Amino acid sequence: MRIEDVQVGAEYTASIPQRLPPAYRGRLGGSVAQWQADMQLYMARGRRLAVTVTGYGDEPGTVTVTRELPAGRVRLRLTEEQADGLGLAEGQAYEITGVITDEAERVITFPHTVVLTIPARWLRPPDERLEVHPDSERFHRALVCRDANGKTLQEIEQAAHEALEKVRHVQGLALDDPTHDWSALAADVDHREWLRIADHVRSTGLATYDPRNDPGAVEDPPRVRFGDEA
């Protein structure tokens, strides 16, 4: 998006590139908070994140955004009585860091806000519709053809049913977290290919599926390229 179109306080989807610009790679110095923000940005490469714009960055064309993350690690400062009960030396403060678990030893998480500064051009409207690149679609179809090889119609129909369940599951996740948007598109491609193969086997009366006898089969997936590759 253009910086002049960004509204402070509004929610957007940040599309983080697989290869971060030089200014965001290997930055030295800065505060602990800045280092943590850089690590979060590095781990988010190639993903779509739900963010809220909180202001404008110091560099031209940049904005500050917040992202909510679950945090499992907590820090607790001991009172003087607690420190004394543990036999710790007087005259200094003590803290305990670690995780909180319930009776079943499940880790309890708490909301944690991460502040990032990113280019405004990385922002997208939350309702933006995505399309699968032809190479990506061909890649996923080829994998399904490979998995279907030698399967009976009943096995293929079962695989199509399981693929549909995956589509519904991932689409549900994508409603709350745009990180799953691309996975939802890929799952839909897989499901549609299983359905196509089932129709082919059903119409031809074959005992098992053979990609060599399927004019619509994709047998050679292309190499997946990132957007910043030549």
Describe the structure.
The protein has 230 residues and is an alpha+beta fold. The protein has helices at 32-43, 80-85, 134-148, 153-176, 181-204, and strands spanning 11-15, 48-56, 62-71, 73-77, 95-101, 107-108, 110-119, 123-124. It is 35% helix and 22% strand. The strands form two sheets. It has a five-stranded antiparallel sheet. The protein has a three-stranded antiparallel sheet with strand order 4-5-6, with no helix packed on it. β2 and β3 form a beta hairpin. α3 packs across α5 and α4 (153-176) runs antiparallel to α5 (181-204). The model is unreliable at 224-230 (pLDDT under 50).
Strand and helix map with partners:
Elements: E1 11-15, H1 32-43, E2 48-56, E3 62-71, E4 73-77, H2 80-85, E5 95-101, E6 107-108, E7 110-119, E8 123-124, H3 134-148, H4 153-176, H5 181-204
Antiparallel strand pairs: 1-2, 1-8, 2-3, 3-7, 4-5, 5-6
Keywords:
230 residues, alpha+beta, 5-stranded antiparallel sheet, 3-stranded antiparallel sheet, 22% strand, disordered C terminus
Helix content: 25-40%
Strand count, sense and barrel status of the largest sheet are: 5 strands, antiparallel
Instruction: Give me the strand/helix succession.
Output: EHEEEHEEEEHHH
Structural class: alpha+beta
The rough form would be described as extended
Strand order of the largest sheet: 7-3-2-1-8
Uncertain runs: 224-230
Estimate what percentage of residues fall within beta strands: 15-25%
Number of strands: 8
Average pLDDT, rounded to a whole number, is 86
Tally of helical segments? 5
**C-alpha Rg (nearest Å):** 25 Å
The N- to C-terminal Cα distance equals 24 Å
